[in-house]
Amino acid sequence: MDIKRRRMLTEPGDTLLLSKSSMDTAFRFTEWQETTGLTPNRFTADPICSVPLPIYTQVAPGTRQFSSVRPELMWHPLFWLPPRLAGRYNLPSGPGGALEVESTTMWSIRVALELTASGLYSIEDGWIDILATVGIDVENDVDLARIEEWQAGGVDDLLDSIDLDLYLKLETNPNWALQSAMALVEPATHAQWAILADSLMEMVSDSYDPELDTPLHEVRETIAVAASLAGVQLEEVPTDDEEPAGEFWARIELEARDGNYSTVQQFLAGPATEALGWLTLTRDTYWESVEDLQSLQGTPAA
Questions:
Q1: How many angstroms separate the Cα of 91 from the Cα of each of 46, 85, 88, 94, 182?
Q2: How confident is the prediction along the chain (302 residues), in pLDDT tens digits per residue?
Q3: Which keywords label this protein (predicted)?
Q4: DSSP 3-state of 53
Q5: How far apart are the first and last CA of the chain?
Q6: Helix, coil or strand: residue 48
Q7: pTM score, two decimals?
Q8: 1 to 4, 77, 133, 135: CA distances (angstroms)
Q9: DSSP structure string for 76-127
Q10: In degrees rounded to 5, what are phi and psi of residue 291?
Q11: Which of 119, 201, 223, 293 could bridge to 256 as Cys pair (CB 3.0-4.6 Å)?
């Protein structure tokens, strides 16, 4: 049987590990919410994985994990992860070897690695349609009704039999993805900071076009949006001064929206220059990690 694949959020050439840009991360977050029907508390927003990941929770007997997901989206492998991949490990990473729950970043890396290595996600061709592998067509109204009934708690032996470990258990070492994720957390985090900072640098630099003489209010709005994104996505970047990243970007956003600037040049010389300097330093500090990781994945640095 031919393997049916579908695209969702990604484009040919996109890896699951590392997002392409700050705006791309924000757009995919919004698109995932609108397309799946999930609320933001049921999926991750960590850009370390280029697509949001659904969060698995305990469910009451007789109910389904993703009953609120639109049935036409239940073809997606992310809604069928086996427990060991859907859940998070308790790791002896705390003080004195105390157990701590696996971080969102480490879990996201682990999921990205396993889905890619197994072929459930193909960099060139997208996601395997899991329901198609058992003969269920989400474009068929009868099959959609069947999925909906199952989501509502109905019994369906075929849907209950779906097991992604048929694809995922390809390695002799069952902990390979966890071990790899533990080694990748720091360099991948640094690489993602650099990529996000680089994309925001472009956004800030392009906020004013001298040929078009971009109006001040448009420049201010662009910088405010960039600051808002940076405040969320780059909040954990360490700084050498006494102003943490989150406070810096909150100040830049406030200046962009409410600061007393009468000309574009005055504004560009103030908050825009500060923002560009911070982003440039972050990008340059961590860019080596981008090159290292992208050489491993066989993709060119941006």
A1: 20, 15, 9, 8, 10
A2: 578 999 999 999 999 999 999 999 999 999 999 999 999 999 998 999 999 999 999 988 888 999 999 999 999 999 999 999 999 999 988 888 889 999 999 999 999 999 999 999 999 999 999 999 999 999 999 999 999 999 999 999 999 999 999 888 766 788 899 999 999 999 999 999 999 999 999 999 999 999 999 999 999 999 999 999 999 999 999 998 789 999 999 999 999 999 899 999 999 999 999 999 999 999 999 999 998 887 665 544 44
A3: Plasmid
A4: coil
A5: 38
A6: coil
A7: 0.91
A8: 9, 18, 8, 10
A9: SGGGS--HHHHS--EES-SGGG--EEPPHHHHHHHHHHHHHHHTSEETTTEE
A10: -65, -40
A11: 223
Q: Long-range CB contacts (< 8 A, 24+ apart) of 143-150?
A: 144/71, 144/72, 147/71, 147/74, 148/71, 150/64
User: Cβ atoms within 10 A of the Cβ of 62, count?
Assistant: 8
- Kindly report the backbone phi and psi dihedral angles of residue 54, in degrees, each rounded to the nearest multiple of 5, phi listed first: -65, 140
Residues making up the chain, counted from first to last: 302
Please name the residue that has the structure tokens 């994985």. 49
Nearest alpha-carbon partner for 293 in 181, 201, 176: 181
If phi > 0 it is left, if psi is from -120 to 50 it is alpha, else beta; for residue 213 that is left
Q: How far does CA 281 lie from the centroid of its chain?
A: 23
- For residues 84-123, b (16+ Cβ closer than 10 Å) or e, as one string? bbbebbebeeeeeeeeeebbbbbbbbbbbbbbbbbebbeb
Place of tokens 């790899």: 180
